[in-house]
Amino acid sequence: MILHEQLLQILAFLGFSVVLVSLFQKLGLGTILGYLAAGILIGPLGWGLISDFQFVQTIAEFGVVFLLFIIGLELQPKKLWGLRKTLLGFGGLQILFCTVVFTVAGHQLGISWASAAVVGFALSLSSTAFALQSLSERKVLNTEFGRASFAILLMQDVVAIPALAVIPSLGLVTASTREVNWGGALAIFIGLALGSRILMGRFLQVVAETRSRELFTGVTLLTVIGVAFLMESVGLSMALGAFLAGVLLSESEYRHELEADLEPFKGLLMGLFFVSVGMSVKLSLLLESPGLILGITVGYMVLKGFLIYGVGRVMKLHRPASNNLAVYLVQGGEFAFVIFGVGQSAQVLSPEWTQRFTLVVTLSMIASPIIIVLNEKIQAMIACKTPAGGPQYDKIDEADNGNTVIIAGFGRVGQIFGRILRTQNVKFTAIEHDTEQIDMLRRFGNKVYYGDASRPEILEAAGIKNAKYFVLAVDDVETSNNIAQILRTEYPHVKVFARSRNRQHTFDLMEAGITHVRRETIDSSVALSEQLLVAMGTPAKRAHEIIERFRLHDELMLQEQFKVRHDQKSFIDVSRQATQQLAQVLKEDAEKTYIDPQHPPEATK
């Protein structure tokens, strides 16, 4: 009977998680909110499908342990030292400003200074998973504010770890409170530091030589759980121990293997962690005191947004970038849930305030995607109007209406076209949809217009009827395909030169009738491959012949694949046959010129 109930609870966890996470991802709300929603529904405060909440929390703690171990693996000391100015500038100021302000605000709500400090620090954190996902999906991670966002999120992760060790010392000392054995903790840390440098590398090498994936995974799990147990035995957090182990192994050559082995466990257990957080969310608080909860949530997000905007301006970001920085980081973070849990366990936070602030952070995460979408619409509306003292974005100057070349997408590819055309004194009209990119380009003297090139009215305003050449350099695949369809059906007189993301995108453009298509990575890849062959001992002339043969063969294969792209079986047969032919060609070339990668020409002379 007990086994039957446990199976039902597992089915409830998996079923609701799969359905809700899939639904929330499609809605653009992210996986975290999906897990939280699942926890709210199946928990004791919801439908009560899972009753053993304490057991779920215990297992979920391992999700945090694995997460911090992987974070530690990624935080190589040398890398952090190289980023110290950015981390301390953006990240340090953001954490400092937000923590101080939220601590004072928390104390005004009647919370003790120690509790307010914990709350203030927790609320200063943003969601790394949500923010990075949103930045990546909108392809703005490499922008000015995207890099600043990454620096802030990285600094938050770094600072959150020692906070987990400090928070328990702020709580009430009771008979059940474990004292920290600082001498034992220091001895463990020294032992780990020496072991990671002297023994661990050699031990992992021996394990890797067995070529047993299962054994390597077992060693990884043993390392993480073992170090976590040692730290817990001296009164410190298991998560802190896992983080230290990750940092000490971050310089290991097996770092990527360790990370790959733990990724499935981390994902599953982190999902369980967020489900357990959702199970503790007391939605009834929103019904009991909606004014208080909504007031704290709105005040928290508005205040945090202003503070982050201020950090951006202090660090010399221009206004649009600072605004975007605030919009993407305005929500609460997943680490806040961890800190609230630690604070309650250490009796720093009362259960009532823990539940309230957990609900506030959850509501802020729900509101964040909506704020991002509204921000994009507002920016588009502002961009379509005439800014004070500035030029119009959508309205193309009459002087540019007769240009023979139009460039759609003035990012890293479109700008190269523009620079080359300028050297030949060829005038062109450039259209870009990213308002921040436009602002930056104009500061460097570039003339760029705001607009969505997939809208016919924008193309008309750009003078498409008078243009002879159209450079399709838009990064987004779907938008690129839409523009290609419009050009072929409405403006067939224009000769199109298109940049494609990959093979499938190339097929889509070819199907739309675009004949001049180039994959964005093909030229750099084959050029570097040619340099590699030369470095390995192949004569320069022979290496060039090999690369040109590969290039020709790949182009022919692309044409053959395009003919059968809708027939999966024929497509696979053509691809397999072409791969075999290419292998035979390259084998013949290798026989003509022997390459010994272990002994390049410089070593054998």
Main features:
605 residues; 6 strands
Strand order of the largest sheet: 3-2-1-4-5-6
Q: N-to-C terminal Cα separation, in Å?
A: 77 Å
What's the tally of helices?
26
Low-pLDDT runs of 5+ residues are: 172-177, 386-394, 594-599, 601-605
The overall average pLDDT, rounded, is: 76
Helical amount among residues, as a percent range? Answer: over 70%
Radius of gyration: 29 Å
Largest sheet: 6 strands, parallel
Determine the structural class based on helices, strands and strand pairing.
mainly alpha
What is the total tally of β strands?
Answer: 6
Principal-axes geometry comes out as globular
Strand content: under 5%
Describe the structure.
With about 600 residues, the protein is mainly alpha-helical. It has 26 helices and 6 strands. The chain has a 6-stranded parallel beta sheet, sandwiched between helices. α18 links the parallel β1 (about 405-410) and β2. α8 (about 145-165) packs across α15. The protein starts with a helix and ends with a helix. Residues about 170-175, about 385-395, about 595-600 and about 600-605 have low confidence and may be disordered.
